[in-house]
Write a structure and sequence with these properties.
Layout lengths: L2 H50 L4 H17 L4 H31 L5 H22 L9 H17 L1
């Protein structure tokens, strides 16, 4: 594989990572919304039911307590932490990809030497590693095959169209 192919592969991988993070964040937001709706409904319905059917006040009180516990632990649930990590990482990865894409013309038209292209690849990998090390303190982004497959499909469509 020549350095131009290595550069292209890096560019494709970076775009795949962007799509992956985008899909992953959307999935995490879905869980966040579901829990918010659930706790809101349980709290509201329990308060209304408690007022109407005082005979079951213990059950309604328990339902309210459970919804409050869920709200209290929500920030430490994995999907909530993923939203934070992706929120910090995503714009920086997009900026890196845009820089890689900007240099693609110089790589593809042969105006850069193999050494210069190799240096670019190395520098981009260092930048990526720094972003990852700064944003991901704990292994919170568990590999998800379903999301990976969706991201791969989007990458294929993206590079086919552009």
């Amino acid at each position: 594989m020549n350095v131009q192919e290595k550069y292209w592969k890096l560019m494709v991988q970076m775009k795949a990572w962007i799509f992956y993070l985008d899909i992953y964040s959307e999935e995490s937001y879905k869980w966040d919304r579901r829990i918010n709706v659930f706790t809101a409904l349980v709290s509201s319905a329990s308060i209304a039911s408690w007022a109407i059917w005082t005979k079951y006040s213990f059950l309604w009180g328990l339902a309210i307590a459970i919804s409050q516990v869920i709200n209290a632990i929500k920030p430490i649930l994995p999907f909530s932490r993923r939203i934070d990590v992706i929120g910090k990482m995503y714009p920086r990865i997009v900026d890196l990809y845009n820089e890689i894409d900007r240099k693609w013309f110089n790589v593809s038209d042969g105006s850069l030497t193999a050494v210069e292209i190799n240096d670019l690849i190395y520098n981009y990998k260092v930048i990526y590693t720094n972003i990852e090390n700064e944003c991901i303190k704990n292994p919170i982004l568990v590999k998800n095959k379903k999301i990976h497959a969706k991201a791969d499909k989007q990458v294929e469509e993206y590079f086919t169209n552009y």
